[in-house]
């Protein structure tokens, strides 16, 4: 039987093959790479189709949208907050997210910690770093990341699990390879510091048009929207 959302199944097959090939280039397997399906602006029916095809991780960049979909999509799946997070909105998502990818300042980390404490939970986070230095991107500056992470390490209800970055938009992924290798090098430097409560097991980097290069450079979380669900109608 074929349905109107079968293209999602086909897209997912293609993405999985591409992940497998890129992983092989860096001596890894497809299973070592976590695929976060970025469902921002995508209608619930399409998201459910993706879940039915095996997607377990969903990424949203806006708090309100995540909260709405969390209630609507009544399936066994994990939610990731991947976009800029305002401190006053932490309370809405604290009990809903598996991983917050976009912690880029101490005040935000402190608020997540306070809210996590209140509900007796340890929350996994990634520290977002602006490797490219592009003005329009959020993220801590690379030279400030270590100091930020040292401060965050004192927050008992947070667990730093790694780093995240967003590369500048490009149609030529080779042009942003340095961003991915830069994040990887930074994570190695931070790992060497052996900071209590901090580990660098995850590198969240790579989107629809650059995920293969990101995987070659060590990504083990990729965040893919367009290549799975098609072009977004709005941002
Ligand atoms: C939208 C978004 C993505 C996915 O982008 P695509 O190019 O559609 O794959 C990944 N990460 C973040 C932070 C995003 O906001």
TrEMBL record:
Names of the cofactor(s): pyridoxal 5'-phosphate
Source taxon at top rank: Bacteria
UniProt GO MF annotations: pyridoxal phosphate binding
UniProt keyword Iron-sulfur present: no
Matches recorded under Pfam families: Ala_racemase_N (PF01168)
Gene3D superfamilies reported in the protein's UniProt record: Alanine racemase
Entry keyword annotation includes Cell inner membrane: no
Residue ranges annotated for the Alanine racemase N-terminal domain, each copy included: 12-232
Residue numbers carrying N6-(pyridoxal phosphate)lysine: 40
Keywords of the record: Pyridoxal phosphate
Family membership: Belongs to the pyridoxal phosphate-binding protein YggS/PROSC family.
Function: Pyridoxal 5'-phosphate (PLP)-binding protein, which is involved in PLP homeostasis.
PANTHER family referenced in this protein's UniProt entry, alphabetically: PROLINE SYNTHETASE CO-TRANSCRIBED BACTERIAL HOMOLOG PROTEIN, PYRIDOXAL PHOSPHATE HOMEOSTASIS PROTEIN
Protein name: Pyridoxal phosphate homeostasis protein
């Amino acid at each position: 039987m074929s349905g109107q959302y079968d293209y999602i199944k086909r897209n997912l097959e293609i993405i999985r093959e591409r992940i497998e090939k890129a992983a092989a280039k860096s001596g890894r397997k497809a299973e070592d790479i976590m695929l976060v399906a970025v469902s921002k602006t995508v209608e619930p029916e399409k998201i459910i189709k993706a879940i039915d095809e095996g997607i377990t991780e969903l990424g949203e960049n806006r708090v309100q949208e995540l909260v709405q979909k969390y209630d609507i999509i009544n399936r066994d799946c994990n939610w990731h907050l991947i976009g800029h997070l305002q401190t006053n909105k932490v309370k809405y998502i604290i009990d809903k997210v598996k991983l917050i990818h976009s912690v880029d300042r101490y005040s935000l980390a402190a608020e997540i910690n306070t809210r996590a404490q209140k509900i007796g939970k340890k929350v996994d986070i990634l520290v977002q770093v602006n490797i490219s230095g592009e003005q329009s991107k959020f993220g801590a500056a690379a030279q400030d990341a270590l100091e930020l992470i040292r401060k965050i390490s004192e927050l008992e209800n947070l667990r730093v699990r790694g780093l995240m970055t967003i590369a500048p938009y490009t149609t030529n992924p080779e042009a942003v390879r340095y961003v991915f290798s830069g994040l990887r090098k930074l994570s190695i430097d931070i790992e060497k510091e052996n900071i209590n409560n901090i580990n660098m097991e995850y590198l969240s980097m790579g989107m629809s048009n650059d995920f293969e290069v990101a995987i070659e450079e060590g990504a083990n979380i990729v965040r893919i929207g367009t290549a799975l669900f098609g072009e977004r109608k709005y941002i």
